[in-house]
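User: Could you check the structure of this?
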Amino acid sequence: MKVAYVQPFSGISGDMTLGALVDLGFGRDELAALPAALGLEGVTIEFHDVRRGVFRAQQVEVRCAAKQPHRHLHHVRAILEGGALPAPVVERAVAVFTRLAEAEAEVHGEPVEKVHFHEVGAADAIVDIAGACLGFHRLGVEAIYVAPIVVGSGTVESAHGTLPVPAPATARLLAGVPVDFTPLEGERTTPTGAALAVTLASGFGPPPPFRLLAQGVGAGGRDPKDRANVLRIVLGDTAGEVSRRTIAVVETTLDDASPQTVAHVAQRLLELGARDAFVTPVLMKKGRPGVTLTALCDPGRVDDVAALLFRETTAIGLRVRHEERFELARSEARVRLPEGEVRLKVVTLPDGSLRARPEHESLAELARASGANLEALAARALAAWDATQG
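Assistant: Sure, the predicted C-alpha cells are below.
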C-alpha cells in the first residue's frame, strides 16, 4: 500500500500541498491543464524552484486574471462535478469543500447552503483542493497520515476583517486533531490546508512502518526568518508490513430504538465515513433488552459521528475511546467470468504472500442478474484470481 506522511512542521496550505506533490512527481503539465478542465477562465499556474531556509522547494502559484465571485457550496460542487476529473478525485474534493462549508456555517451561525466561500471559493482555492486530490490520486497514495499541525500566531486579515490565528474556521476544522501552537510568525495553517488535512487523513500521528520511496517539499508564498515555510510529504510503501493506526471507537447503548432505526443509523454511519459500524445485543438495567451501536472512525471524524448519533437516535450520551488497530495492506482486484465481472479484496500478509476474497456485494449482484449460484460464483472467481498469480 502506498502511504503519504504529511509533515506540517511549519503549517499547511493548499499551495504548499500542491508544491510538495509536484516535487514528488505529480505532473506539471496535468496540473497546469487543471483550470481549463474545470472551466475556470483566466486562471493559470506558475511553477518556481525556490529556497526556504535550508530547503530547496517547489512553489506553485495559481494566478487569476479577474476578480472571483463569491461562491456557495453548490457552485463549487457544480464546477468540480462538471470537470474532466476521475470520480474518486471529485468525491474527495467535494468532501473537502463540504467540510469547509460546515466549519464556516458553524462559525457564522448560518445554514451550510447560505455560506459564502469568499477566499476559499475563489478559483485558486478550487485549483488547490482539486489539484491536491488529483495529485495524491496520480501518485497512487492509498493512505495519508498527518503529523501535528503547526498553526502559527498573531492575526490574519480576511474578508471578515482581522482574525486571530488560527482563524475561527481553521480552529473548527482542527477540532480533535493534534496541533502545535509554537509561536511562529503569522498564519501558518490556512482553512484550505486544514480542510485538506482533516478530510483526507487516514490517521494523525506517526505512520505505519514503510519503505521510504521519496520526499517532496512545497513552499509557502512568504519567507519568514523563524522557520522555513515549507511542507514536507514523505512517500512510502507498506507492502508486506502490518500497519498500525489510532482509531476512535464511538458507541452508545439504546433500549428504545426500533430495529429499523438502528439499521438505518448503522448504514448512515458508513456513508458518513466510519470505517465500520456494528450492533451488539445487550441486557440493560431493569432487565431491558437493548443494543450497543458502535462506530469505528478516524479521530478527526469523531465530531461528525457524534453529531449523527445524537441527531438520528435517542442517545443522551456517548462513549469515546482511542485504540490501536493493526491492519494488513489491502487492494482490489477484478476477474471476469462468463456471467460478468467480480471484484475481490486482496490483502498482503506479513510474509509478502497474497490472500483474496470475492466481495459479497459484487457476487450478489452478479448472482441476481445471471441466476447463477452465489457460492459457485465465489469459488470460480477465486480460482480465476489464483490463475492470474501464476
